[in-house]
Amino acid sequence: MNKQKIKIGMLGFGTVGGGTYRMLASNGKIIEDSTGVELEISRILVRDKSRKRDVDAPAELFTEDPDDILKNPDIDVVVEVMGGLQPATDYIAEAIRSKKHVVTANKAVIAKDGPGLTDLAVQNKVILRYEASVGGGIPILNALSTSLQANEFTEVTGIVNGTTNYILSQMTDNDMSYEDALKDAQARGFAEADPTADVEGYDAVNKLSILISTAFGVRVAPEDIPREGITNITKEDIGFATQFGYKIKLLAQARRYRSTLECHVQPAMVPMGHPLATVNNEFNAVFAKGNAVDDVMLYGKGAGAMPTASAVVGDLFEIARAYATGTTEQSIPTAVNDNTSLTFDGEGQNMYYVNLIAEDMPGVLGTIATTFGNYGIGIDTFLQRSRGRKTGRHVPLIYILHEVTRDRLNEALEEIVKFTFVKEVKSIISVACLD
Ligand code: NAP
Ligand code: HSE
To answer: What predicted TM-score, i.e. pTM, was given to this entire model?
Structure first.
C-alpha cells in the first residue's frame, strides 16, 4: 500500500472542531491502517488566536486569516466547523473551486445551498460530505442514500435537535425549569451559538430539509417548512401529556400522501409506546418507513463534541478511502435525484391537543363540542379538571381532537374564544400521527 498524507485545514475550533482534532489524534491510526492515508491537521482558522481553548493544539497551527487555508496549495481537504451561513458558504465554495475536498457539519449552509454546492463539487471533481449536519453522530444520511436507497419512503420522522430534546426531557423527567435546562444544554456544547435556532425550530427545519432531499429527492426550502418551536410548552402541558399517555417531543416530520409531500417541525405528543418517545436528552433518532424495509429507526447522540466528531471523521475516512482508490465521486446526493412525481403540499392534517380555559357552568361543553362539530372536527378524548371547592370559576378543558388542518382548527378556535364563557386558548400542541 502506498503511503500518502492528506493535509487538512480546519475552519473553526469550537465544540466540533475541538472534538474532531481530538478524535483524529486518538483514532487517526485506524484510518491510516485501513487506507494507507495519514490525515494531518495543518492549519486551523479561528476568530481569536489568543483565546484559551479546552483542547490543546500547537499554537503555530492557528490562524485568523482564511487565505492561509483557502489559498494554501498544500491543503487538500477543508473541514468547515465554524457555523453560520456566511462567511461559511463562501469559504466552502472557494475551497471547492480551489479543488479541495470539503467536509462540513453546517446544516444551515447545506439546507440552503446543498444542491448548488454539490453541483459545484461535481464540476470541480471533489468530494463534499456533510454527515454531521443531521443527527450528530447518527449516520442517517449515509443510510438513507446507500443501504436504504432502493426503498420508496412514505415517512421520515426525527427528533433531530439535541438541545430541545434535552430541555424537554429535563422538564419532563427532572422537573427542571426551561431556563435551567437550556443553560445546561449550552454548557454541554449542544446548543447553536444563538440558541434561538434550536428552541424556535430553525435548526430542525434545516435538518428536515436535508432529510427530505435525501429520502424523497424533493427540495423543500427550510423557510417553506411549517415551523414551531418549544418556547410555549409549559410544565402543565407536559403533565397533561403524561396523563394521556404521551411524551412531548420536537418532531421533524415528512410524510408522503399520494403524490404530495407534507412536512413540519413542531412540538408533538408522541404515544409512550412509540420508540421515538423513549429518545431522551441529547439523543436523536430518525424513524423512516420504506416500502420494502418497513420501519427503521437510527438512534444515537445528536450533539456534542465527540459524537459529532465521529461523523466528521467518518467523512474524512471516506475521503481517505477515495484517495487510496483514486475515486472522487459524490457519496451523499442531495436533491440531485430529483423526484418530479412528488409535490410539496404544506403541513397536512394532524391530531391536536387543545387546552381551553372556560367557565365551569351548564351548557359550555355542549356548545364547544357543537362548534368543533360544525367545523368537521371530531373529539377523540376529553378531560375537565375539577375546580374543587375554593378555586375560581374557570377550569382547563383538555381536548384531543381528530385529524384536521391547523388552519381549520384555528378557524374553529377563533369562533370558540368569542363565547363569553371562554377565557383563553392556553395551548395547542399537535398529537403525532405515526403509522
Ligand atoms: P462553536 O463551538 O461556536 O465554534 C465555532 C468555531 O468557529 C470557533 O472556534 C470560532 O472561533 C470559529 N469561527 C466562527 N466564526 C468564524 C469566523 N467568521 N472566522 C473565523 N473563525 C470563526 O460551534 P460548534 O458548536 O463547534 O458548531 C460548529 C458547526 O457544527 C455549526 O455549523 C453547527 O451547527 C455544527 N454542529 C454542531 C454540533 C454540536 O453539537 N455543537 C453538532 C452538529 C453540528 P473562536 O474560537 O475564535 O471564537
Ligand atoms: N444545536 C444542535 C442540536 C447541534 O442541539 O442538536 C447538533 O446539530
So the answer is: 0.95
